[in-house]
Design a protein that fits this description.
Elements (H helix, E strand, L loop, with lengths): L8 E9 L5 E8 L2 E6 L6 E5 L3 E6 L11 E5 L4 E6 L3
Antiparallel strand pairs: 1-2, 1-7, 2-3, 3-4, 5-6, 6-7
């Protein structure tokens, strides 16, 4: 069973993961980590602890008014790309 690493959730929204094929689900940003849970299978999830992050990358268009995708580069496991309505 998937268990959240966060004690409190500061932001939650619908989003898309671009790890392999597109997966639609829920994005949660909390006090301990960034989490993505797939809508079809909750056991298909991504948890990135804040200590593991090396760099956060944002694609910025139209003078900073539109950010279509965000990416997280981790210290050990590569880059994860996500999109949501208000990243």
């Amino acid at each position: 069973m998937a268990e959240s690493m966060n004690r409190t959730v500061e932001y939650a929204c619908n989003g898309t993961s671009f790890l392999g094929l597109q997966n639609y689900g829920k994005i949660m940003v909390g006090d301990k980590s960034f989490e993505f849970y797939d809508d079809r299978n909750v056991e298909n999830y991504i948890q990135i602890p804040w200590e593991e992050l090396d760099l956060i990358i944002g694609s910025i268009y139209f003078g900073g008014r539109f950010i279509p995708r965000i990416a997280f580069r981790t210290k050990n496991n590569g880059t994860f790309v996500f999109s949501c309505r208000k990243p």
